[in-house]
Design a protein that fits this description.
By secondary structure, the protein is α/β, with parallel strands linked by helices. The chain folds into two domains: 227 residues, TIM Barrel; 144 residues, Rossmann fold, CATH 3.40.50. Helix content is 32%, strand content 15%. It has 14 helices and eleven strands. α4 runs parallel beside α6.
């Protein structure tokens, strides 16, 4: 079974009927040829070149606009010609909102001709101004959509999503949800849609026969992930603490039978992230940790990793830098670490946004230490877990930690050296 992604391009905010108040990409510098933003560096960069298409452009969704349908059609045909076997799904994606794509109907008709199941990876629905589009999508083979709801209250969508026709957007969602798999995303803006309005929205979504609800925590600072020189998104607006957010997720779960997950924490059904921390039967299957290393991660992952690794005999450091999400760690986070607590072997997140040369300069101790990138995934976030079974999620964690343990044992130091 093969999956195909159809990239329609587009720019967040510019090709989705305007920025939502809480949009992660608000304030991001774009297409400034005189003063282009500096690349972060990443694992895809060449050894002696800081900056690649991912850490210069993709991380900023730096498209020039929607791609013409002719270009999208050519790219899709090229992919189809390379496929052997049945296509399990075709996912429409891009920096802009598919519902706002100028040739949206023609695009769907084109993809429908493949007779493959169609998915929309994300839409705000702000481009759906006629609910009759739902019937067209269903008849064209649309099977799944991730739809940002924010609220079932049209006035809140109008005020915070800048939806010009929220009643029509919500009606389109309702008609779709009765026929296909609809996943509703709700970014929780403290004091706006996180109290009674959240409960009202959840009840409305349940009545619509929603497949799953994803709750998303509002971020407003660099340490929460706004690394594109765009913090704050809303000046002075409160952000839920992790404990507050987790309590809201639990409350939401208690009020519905619909599948609930959340990001950055947590999934009430699967107990993720890091569900294996409470599963000794899985921890018992791991090999003995025979070497020592320093593991660098984000503040959310750090306590979970310490608990898991110390249960299986790990004798090294787990350092949580002042960045909640490990994949959004930048060089500034690493240069702030006290070098006196580092072992000779250091493992950073595989997807940290840092160039290897700069990492070695910051942490390598003039060649005294070795710096490695760890596994791609040690757990699964709420958005990803929504489409997985618990067994699949546990297997991701098991494989990730097994890879990490093997990395420590192969390249790590003698534990007695750092007792």
């Amino acid at each position: 079974m093969v999956q195909i992604t159809v990239d329609i391009g587009g720019r967040p905010g510019y090709d989705c009927s305007g920025f939502c108040e809480y949009c992660y990409f608000k304030g991001v510098a774009r297409n400034d040829t005189e003063n282009p933003p500096e690349a972060f560096g990443c694992r895809y960069c060449l050894p002696f070149t800081k900056g690649c298409s991912f850490c210069k452009d993709s991380i900023r969704e730096a498209y020039t606009g929607f791609k013409p349908l002719k270009e999208v059609a050519f790219e899709t045909l090229t992919q189809l010609q390379q496929v052997s076997g049945e296509i399990s799904k075709i996912t429409i994606s891009g920096g802009g909102d598919p519902s706002c794509y100028p040739e949206f109907v023609d695009l769907i008709e084109l993809l429908a001709s493949t007779e493959s199941p169609l998915h929309i990876g994300y839409t705000s629905g702000k481009g759906f101004d006629d609910p009759d589009i739902a019937k067209f999508l269903i008849s064209s083979g649309m099977r799944e959509i991730s739809f940002t709801i924010f609220s079932s209250n049209p006035e809140l969508r109008r005020a915070y999503m800048h939806d010009l026709h929220p009643e029509e957007s919500l009606e389109t969602y309702r008609r779709l949800a009765g026929e296909i798999d609809m996943y509703a995303a709700i970014l929780l803006l403290p004091g706006v849609n996180d109290g009674q309005d959240l409960l009202d929205t959840i009840r409305w979504l349940e009545a619509c026969k929603t497949k799953g609800i994803i709750l998303m925590r509002f971020a407003n600072s660099v340490k929460q992930g706004l690394i594109l020189n765009n913090a704050p998104l809303i000046l002075g607006h409160h952000v839920h603490t992790l404990d507050e957010f987790k309590a809201i997720v639990k409350m939401a779960k208690e009020h519905t039978k619909v599948r609930i997950s959340a990001t950055p924490v947590f999934d009430p059904d699967f107990n993720t992230p890091f569900a294996i921390a409470a599963m000794p039967e899985i921890l018992a299957t791991f090999p003995e940790v025979t070497s020592c290393a320093t593991l660098i991660t984000g503040t959310i992952a750090a306590p979970y990793m310490r608990e898991i690794l110390h249960q299986i005999g790990f004798n090294g450091n787990v350092i949580g830098v002042d960045k909640e999400i490990a994949d959004l760690i930048t060089i500034e986070d690493l240069t702030s670490i006290d070098s006196s607590i580092l072992t000779n072997t250091i493992i950073i997140p595989q997807n940290a946004l840092v160039h290897d040369r700069e990492v070695n300069a910051a942490l390598g101790g003039d060649g005294e230490r070795i710096v490695l990138r760890g596994p791609a995934r040690l757990t699964v976030d709420g958005e990803t877990a929504m489409g997985m079974t618990k067994e699949e999620v546990l297997e991701v964690e098991r494989q990730g930690f097994l890879e990490l343990i093997n990395l420590i044992n192969r390249y790590g130091d003698d534990p007695e050296t750092f007792d």
